[in-house]
């Protein structure tokens, strides 16, 4: 079984892009509809609007009132949800194969027919505020928000996907409906479906449901590139608790940039492997990564360290999250972190470290490919910032990375001038400037 | 209108006696294997009878501490060598303690199963608890408890257990308290391991690209020679006395934006005959669709919460039957009232025929989805073995679900839920 074969896109007359993959190992089908809109398409005053629109898309249409729709999916034993991210918004259903038609009908319907009833919108306003309040309870949320604001004063990656509370309190029905109508159209969408179907039959059905939907105007995308950072930013967020947290974030290349794959190897060597598995598959620990070994095992300056390098449309961040050891300080942790980065900048990593990183990536793909939901996810997800070839060529591109590439990427991106150092400082530890 | 050609659900494709190999080794280990050659990998899971119910009250968290330390080194390998082997293979392995058992779980590419089992056997049988590492783990556990103290959802759960399980062993958290973690010495870890870790009543499940005969031979080779005569009988969990009246308590955690609610009662044991009616009833109450009746009232209609749902977590002993919600602090009282009223309505009369049909269909329909991955199948096999449900459990599942009636749901629910005798625990900003 292989998961890595390219799949050509099928494009309907109205511009809708479709990717289909037959997998006959279980009587299941996972269907995803992706829209090219996310929090990067929001300006001040409208932050959080993409996520709120996603919530409103569950409120129903004249044909499928919300309750009827929820029951139809649940009765079939299906799983469904939606996600709003920086660059995209997506809706999925994974269903018993013989029930998938319900999901296809529901998605075609809500692509154009959602109602946005004013009363329901007000009720959802408080639900969304509650979602944000729940996140605010976690000290790490405040730190992440502050680091993003410092990293992206110009680009719209600078606000949280959930939006600012003031905007959640003030946006109106027309704002949301306008956003929906601007971005939810067949020519701004990709459908990715994997599972137990015959491609010709499914394609015929998709044409019946989608081809008559009118193409929309070209969707406006906010485009405010972030200029290079001029010097390191350091910030402190204060709050309750006893634990000091650190977030060291470096500006990083977009997923389609040539440096992205060497950066993934760098990430794996420094802070451990990351997979593309959104639905199960599990992870691989990072206990032998350079930063964990040094900060947690050797020096007891942190109790945990993890890294993330999300695949995005525009240049985003490589973030290192630290929980500082109770007997240590952020300064000691930062010093050890800097020395490890310096080591990578001074000498290329041994080939074995690169080989290990690619073997880990191969294993993560094997685990993730057990899930039909993951397989359909990969097809649409990659189209949002590159193309599905990005996934099918993933392992090959990792294997092509050389030690010198990793060293060059470390030298290019992991400079203090290119980073934001954020510390969460509990009140009771006293104010500490960095 | 054409529709996609479909493959109908075949009961014989569900894991069952025809493709599950179950073997009892001489030393007491039960092994279940189910091959899946559509996958390139294997999933390994199981448990030993070494859960936190064996913790002394002054050293709560001992089972958890012990499980965490297993990976810190053995007579044969250091911590770094263990993780170097695992991470170089792209494999994973972890052990953690629950109430009754210490559970383990791992994954690897199929070819690496022998090495994964070798490491599992080594850490279970020959851990050395290096003294130098114990303080490191203690710091990590204490930091985890600091973070827990800031987590309104977790603190509301702890408060619920204190009220609902007063005087019962389930009232204590598996991860202990700062003072009990501080009290644990290295000898305690060695003693706990020597007393409770052993093959009797141990279960190992392997699912993935492996022939059953090969898996059985490997487990026999790696774990078949393990004996521990000190192992006690599995922990007998006593019943719980229901509350005389509703008890409500609030844990104040300053500077929080949201308050969390955990409200409910002690529910049935997993092996109780009315478990399935209670389970389906719970789904109608707070899960089906967008979180059932409670989600509809608290989230959709009142707009009070991002999440509001119920859950029934039955185990060997009587597990909690709870409703959970996160709300703005000023809405706490209103949300509690709405939830109580929903419970009252739920207990007043049988669920509607349509609700029953919906939830039956849901439980039958979702079965293939839960069995999609190796890990999903391994989890189902582990449940079947833990609660002695039989290898043909999944074949009989649909019939069992279809036979549940509206009356049996009401009867099962009334045995446990009482709107006037609830444990209500909330955590958030001071009231």
Description:
Chain A has 16 helices and eleven strands. In chain A, the strands form two sheets. Chain A has a six-stranded mixed β-sheet, with helices on both faces. Chain A is globular and about 60 Å long. The longest helix of chain A is centred in the N-terminal third of the chain and has 19 residues. Chain A is an alpha+beta fold. Chain B is an alpha+beta fold and 431 residues long. In chain B, strands 1-2-6-3-5-4 form a six-stranded mixed β-sheet, with helices on both faces. In chain B, a hairpin with a 5-residue loop joins strand 1 and strand 2. The interface between A and B is large, with 91 and 79 residues.
Explain the layout of strands and helices.
The complex is a heterodimer of chains A (434) and B (431).
Chain A lengths: L9 E2 L5 E6 L5 E8 L13 H8 L9 H10 L3 E6 L4 E8 L3 H13 L5 H19 L2 H13 L13 H6 L2 H11 L5 E7 L3 H12 L22 E7 L5 E7 L8 H12 L18 H9 L3 E7 L8 E8 L5 H17 L4 H18 L3 H12 L4 H5 L1 H6 L3 H11 L5 E8 L8
Parallel strand pairs in A: 2-6, 7-11
Antiparallel strand pairs in A: 1-2, 3-5, 3-6, 4-5, 8-10, 8-11, 9-10
Chain B lengths: L20 E4 L5 E6 L5 E8 L13 H8 L9 H11 L2 E6 L4 E8 L3 H13 L5 H19 L2 H13 L13 H6 L2 H11 L6 E6 L3 H12 L23 E6 L6 E8 L8 H12 L1 H14 L3 E8 L7 E8 L4 H17 L4 H13 L1 H4 L3 H13 L6 H10 L3 H11 L6 E6 L3
Parallel strand pairs in B: 2-6, 7-11
Antiparallel strand pairs in B: 1-2, 3-5, 3-6, 4-5, 8-10, 8-11, 9-10
Helix pairs in contact in B: 1-7, 3-8, 9-10, 9-12, 9-16, 10-11, 12-15
- The global form of chain B is globular
- Could you give a short account of the major beta sheet of chain A? 6 strands, mixed
| Content of β-strand of chain B | 15-25%
Low-confidence blocks of residues of chain A: none
Tell me the number of helical segments of chain A per DSSP (H or I, 4 or more residues long).
16
Tally of DSSP helical segments of chain B = 16
Structural class of chain A: alpha+beta
Largest sheet of chain B: 6 strands, mixed
């Amino acid at each position: 079984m292989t998961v890595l074969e390219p799949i050509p896109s099928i494009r309907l007359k109205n511009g809708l892009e479709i990717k289909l993959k037959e997998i006959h190992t279980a009587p299941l089908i996972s269907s995803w509809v992706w829209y090219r809109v996310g929090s990067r398409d929001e300006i001040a005053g409208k932050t959080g609007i993409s996520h709120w629109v996603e919530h409103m898309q569950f409120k129903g249409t004249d044909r499928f009132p919300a309750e009827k729709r929820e029951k139809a999916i649940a009765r079939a034993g299906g799983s469904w949800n939606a996600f709003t991210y920086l660059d995209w918004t997506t809706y999925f259903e994974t269903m018993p194969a013989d029930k998938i038609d319900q999901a296809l009908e529901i998605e075609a319907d809500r692509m154009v027919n959602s109602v946005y009833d004013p009363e329901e919108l007000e009720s959802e306003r408080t639900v969304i505020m509650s979602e944000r309040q729940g996140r605010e309870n976690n000290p790490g949320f405040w730190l992440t928000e502050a680091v993003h604001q410092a990293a992206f004063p110009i680009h719209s990656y600078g606000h949280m996907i959930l939006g600012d509370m003031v905007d959640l309190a003030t946006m109106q029905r027309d704002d949301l409906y306008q956003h929906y109508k601007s971005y939810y159209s067949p020519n701004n969408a990709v459908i990715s479906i994997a599972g137990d179907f015959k491609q010709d039959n499914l394609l015929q059905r998709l044409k019946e449901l989608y081809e008559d939907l009118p193409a929309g105007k070209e969707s406006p995308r906010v485009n405010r590139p972030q200029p290079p950072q001029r010097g390191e930013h350091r910030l402190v967020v204060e709050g309750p608790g006893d634990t000091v947290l650190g977030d060291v974030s470096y500006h990083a290349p977009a997923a389609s940039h040539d440096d992205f794959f060497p950066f993934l190897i760098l990430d794996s060597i420094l802070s451990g492997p990351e997979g593309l598995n959104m639905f199960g598959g599990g992870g691989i620990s990072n206990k032998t990564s350079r930063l964990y070994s040094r900060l947690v095992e050797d020096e007891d300056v942190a109790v945990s360290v993890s890294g993330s390098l999300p695949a995005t449309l525009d240049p985003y961040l490589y973030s290192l999250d630290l929980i500082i050891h109770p007997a240590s300080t952020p300064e000691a942790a930062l010093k050890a972190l800097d020395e490890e980065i310096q080591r990578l900048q001074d000498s290329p990593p041994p080939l074995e470290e690169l080989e290990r990183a690619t073997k880990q990536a191969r294993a993560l793909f094997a685990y993730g490919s057990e899930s039909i939901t993951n397989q359909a996810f990969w097809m649409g997800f990659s189209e949002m910032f590159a193309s599905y070839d990005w996934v099918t060529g993933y392992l090959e591109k990792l294997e092509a990375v050389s030690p010198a590439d990793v060293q060059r990427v470390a030298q290019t991106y992991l400079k203090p001038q290119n980073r934001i150092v954020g510390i969460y400082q509990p009140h009771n530890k006293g104010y500490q400037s960095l | 209108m054409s529709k996609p050609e479909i493959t109908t659900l075949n009961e014989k494709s569900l894991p069952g006696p025809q493709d599950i190999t179950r073997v009892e080794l001489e030393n007491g280990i039960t092994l279940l294997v189910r091959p899946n050659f559509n996958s390139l990998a294997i999933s390994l899971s199981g448990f030993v009878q070494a859960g936190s119910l064996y913790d002394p009250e002054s050293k709560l968290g001992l089972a958890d501490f012990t499980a965490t330390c297993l990976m810190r080194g053995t007579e044969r390998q250091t911590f770094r060598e263990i993780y170097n082997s695992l991470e170089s293979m792209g494999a994973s392995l972890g052990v953690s303690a629950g109430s009754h058992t210490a559970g383990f779980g791992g994954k690897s590419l199929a070819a690496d199963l022998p090495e994964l089992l070798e490491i599992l056997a080594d850490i279970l049988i020959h851990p050395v608890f290096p003294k130098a590492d114990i303080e490191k783990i203690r710091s990590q556990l204490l930091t985890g408890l600091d973070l827990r103290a800031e987590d309104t959802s977790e603190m509301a759960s702890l408060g619920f257990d204190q009220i609902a399980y007063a005087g019962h062993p389930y009232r204590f958290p598996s991860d202990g308290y700062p003072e009990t973690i501080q009290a644990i010495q290295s000898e305690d870890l060695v003693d706990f391991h020597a007393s409770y870790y052993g093959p009797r009543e141990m279960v190992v499940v392997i699912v993935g690209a492996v022939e059953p005969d090969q898996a059985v031979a490997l487990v026999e080779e790696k774990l078949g020679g393990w004996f521990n005569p000190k192992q006690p009988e599995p922990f007998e969990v006593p019943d719980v006395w229901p509350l005389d009246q509703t008890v409500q308590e609030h844990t104040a955690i300053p500077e929080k934006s949201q308050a969390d609610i955990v409200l409910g009662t002690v529910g049935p044991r997993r092996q109780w005959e009315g478990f399935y009616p209670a389970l389906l009833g719970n789904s109608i109450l707070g899960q089906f669709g967008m979180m059932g009746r409670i989600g509809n009232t608290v989230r959709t209609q009142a707009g009070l919460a991002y999440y509001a749902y119920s859950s029934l977590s039955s185990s060997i002993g009587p597990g909690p039957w709870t409703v959970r919600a996160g709300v703005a602090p000023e809405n706490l009282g209103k949300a509690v009232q709405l939830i109580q009223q929903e419970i009252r309505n739920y207990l007043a009369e049988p669920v509607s025929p349509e609700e029953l049909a919906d939830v039956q269909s849901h439980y039958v329909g979702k079965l293939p989805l839960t069995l999609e991955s190796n890990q999903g199948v391994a989890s189902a096999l582990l449940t079947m073995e833990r609660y002695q449900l039989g290898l043909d459990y999944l074949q009989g599942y649909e019939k069992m679900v279809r036979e549940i009636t509206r009356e049996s749901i009401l009867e099962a629910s009334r045995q446990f839920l009482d709107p006037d005798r609830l444990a209500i625990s909330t955590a958030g900003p001071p009231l």
